[in-house]
């Protein structure tokens, strides 16, 4: 199955946010076309492309549609084929590190030293742990050929 082409839109000249979202979606399509995809993913990808090509929406509604379709496609790629964009795991694990490692460490520091105001001290530690774990997972995905040549900027 072939992936459809995204039709150029000339009404985006006056709306920089929609133009940026459209450009990012087209970059994602170029990166996805380089990968070997199963028919389920190609079908979903083509449905997203058709909905963007056939829409008459403009402005923030078009931007919202493009971003929604892009997020859906990226989630499907991750779920079905374990393919992720650049810095995916780094972004994910930074937040997880802060919440699952940083807050408990900060609470432990605060309680141990008798000053609960030191709870915020754990957040940068957790962020560092999360960034290290996420960076390693991104390197592993790149080595296994599961990383797109595309960075998602939501």
Largest sheet, in brief, is: 2 strands, parallel
The best one-word shape is elongated
The CA-CA distance between the termini, in Å, is: 28 Å
- Structure annotation, total helices: 5
- Alpha-beta classification: mainly alpha
**What's the rounded overall pLDDT mean?**
91
Residues in helices, as a percent range: 55-70%
Detail the poorly predicted runs.
none
SSE succession: HHHEHHE
Strand order of the largest sheet: 1-2
Count of strand segments: 2
Radius of gyration: 20 Å
Name the beta content range.
5-15%
In short:
This protein has helices spanning 16-33, 39-54, 59-81, 88-113, 122-143; strands at 84-86, 147-151. The chain is mainly alpha-helical and 154 residues long.
Task: Please describe what this structure looks like.
Strands 1-2 form a two-stranded parallel sheet. The longest helix has 26 residues, at 88-113. Helix 1 (16-33) runs parallel beside helix 3, helix 2 runs antiparallel to helix 3 and helix 4 runs antiparallel to helix 5. The mean pLDDT is 91. It has 5 helices and 2 strands. The protein is mainly alpha-helical and 154 residues long. 23% of the residues are buried.
């Amino acid at each position: 199955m072939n992936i459809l082409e995204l039709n150029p839109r000339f009404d985006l000249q006056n709306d920089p946010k929609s133009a940026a979202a459209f450009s990012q979606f087209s970059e994602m399509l170029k990166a996805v076309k380089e990968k070997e995809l199963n028919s389920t993913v190609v079908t979903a990808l083509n449905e997203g492309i058709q909905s963007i090509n056939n829409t008459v929406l403009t402005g923030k509604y078009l931007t919202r549609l493009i971003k929604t379709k892009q997020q859906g496609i990226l989630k499907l790629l991750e779920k079905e084929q374990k393919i992720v964009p650049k810095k995916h795991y780094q972004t994910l694990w930074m937040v997880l590190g802060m919440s699952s490692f940083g807050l408990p460490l900060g609470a432990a520091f605060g309680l141990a030293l008798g000053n609960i105001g030191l709870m915020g001290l754990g957040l940068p530690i957790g962020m560092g742990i999360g960034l290290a774990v996420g960076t390693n997972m991104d390197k592993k995905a790149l080595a296994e050929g599961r990383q797109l040549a595309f960075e998602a900027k939501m």
